[in-house]
Amino acid sequence: MKPIRTLFQRDIRLTLRQGTDATMVIAFFVIAIVLFPLGLGPEPQLLARIAPGLIGVTALLSAMLSLDRLFQQDYEDGSLELLVLNPNPMIAHVIAKVAAHWVTTGLPLMAATPLLAVLLNLPADAMPIFLLAMLLATPSLSLIGAVGAALSLGARRGGVLISLLVLPLYIPVLIFAVGAVDAVLLEQSARPHLLLLGAILAAALPLCPLVTVAALRQSLD
Question: How many domains are there within the chain?
């Protein structure tokens, strides 16, 4: 755990020192959500009906904005090659990167969600389930996104390639997260959707770091 903690603290400090990626993610998330009431009109029932899907899709796209820089800086300055030669397992570096990405993107997105949900007239009784769904969904987005970032490392127009790679894998996460909130709005149980989100996260936790390590090694060969 010590190598993971050390690398995690390093990545958090670098992200906070630069600040542009985290700020860009939140700014895009907020601005995109705010534009929809302006375009669709202030009808409360319409906004409440589209709120879960709108916030879910926008959060997904926002999380993708910083994926192309996930390993790029270490790749450009040679740190990634040193980590391969380091006696500590490379998977520790991947886990630390994913955790730092979630802390600097997933948590801020969750923090902004209640305010934006109020703007879209989402009922208050759906808010706890929405936050729980995002708590389960956003780590999965970071884990799956790390695989796409590793596969596209060093490629031209890597951001576009990441989108093509990870968007199909993001669809189940989006469906179950939005479905949990819709179930509450329809006075049904959100438990099946939350369990499926938990299952996706439980599968992604061991598998995605292993696939990411293999993709990074392939990119360095």
Answer: 1
